[in-house]
Amino acid sequence: MLRTGASRLALRSIAGPAARPAAPSFTPPLQWTSRLSSMASRRPQLPPMRQLTPIQGAVLRRAMVGKIDRKAEDRYQHEKLEPHPELVTTTSSVRSAFSEVATPEAPKDVDMMARVKYDFTTIKDTFDLSAVPRQAYLIGLAGVLPYLATSISTVYCAWEINHSVAGYGYFLSAQTAEQLLHFLEPLQVGYGAVILSFLGAIHWGLEFAGYGGNHGYKRYAIGVVAPAVAWPTILMPVEYALITQFMAFTVLYYVDTRAATRGWTPSWYGIYRFVLTFIVGASIVLSLVGRGEVADHIKGIPGAVDRMKNLKDDAQQALSHQEEGIGAQKAADAAKED
């Protein structure tokens, strides 16, 4: 048995053996006595293992472990690993982590579409809308349908203008399609500004209700910034207005997902907002594509600032004509009197 510091400590803590009944005397042979007398005088007599405490027994068992076989360890260290290609299969990488080698018998029928099915299942679980209230889901989709309708109508008008012959298309003339295009795009910009303002106002309602706690200015700021960004887009040219609203919808979606993660909104609000934002973003892209297809065929659509300027110019021209008429009438009256 190896002598270590732990074993000596355990041996010292062991009390002397309890009194036991006298065992039958046994006198070893002379050669045994002479051979073991020196070791017996120096080694204490250990009591049986059942009389030791659990800690003392563990220390003694560890001390009884034999020496390490250095030769075997050296042989294992310099041993070269041999490859076994026959054990590598298409499914060997998914074996149990506790097995040393793969099972040589690979399954004959391997489902190659299993990974694809798993990916589709993951996507389906990620975009699961089962937790979204049915009323909110249906009304939310109905709310973005007018926005999508304006985009589809813009693309259709652009198609009619591009495919018109001598000013006439399949169902609409080029002039009618252009007038309808001028009418639709401001509607889309105005409706997009309304949607942005509504999404910001949702955070005010959540703060009033105390959903997820009261957060004060942090949540109120979301409802204030959204309409502040949406309102100026009404005065921009239609292309710049749509691009600005696209960026605003994207940033607001990121803010809403962060709010859902922090518990400021219901857990389903993030995926719900993703679906609606995706539809609105796709609608804006469609409108920009349709507008780009007819950029060289129609005049620039005047924005709100241009329309206000035209109204002002028209009013000034009408006033000047009226003043000229009044002056001419006075001159005629003066000539009659003379």
Shape: elongated
Note the total helix count. Answer: 11
Structural class: mainly alpha
Low-confidence parts: 15-26, 30-41
Using only C-alpha atoms, the radius of gyration works out to 45 Å
| Helix-strand pattern | HHHHHHHHHHH
| Main sheet attributes: strand count, strand direction, barrel closure | none
N-end to C-end Cα span = 149 Å
Overall pLDDT confidence = 75
- Roughly what fraction of the amino acids lie in strands? under 5%
Count of β-strands: 0
Assembly level: single chain
Helix content: 55-70%
InterPro entries: DUF3429
Pfam family, one: DUF3429
Keywords: Membrane, Transmembrane, Transmembrane helix
Transmembrane segments: 136-156, 189-210, 222-255, 267-289
Primary descriptors:
11 helices, 338 residues, elongated, single chain, mainly alpha
Explained architecture:
The protein is an all-alpha fold. Among the domains are: 136-301, no CATH class; 302-338. 64% of the residues lie in helices and 0% in strands. It has eleven helices and no strands. Helix 6 (134-162) packs antiparallel against helix 7. The longest helix has 36 residues, at 174-209. Mean pLDDT is 75; it is low at 15-26 and 30-41.
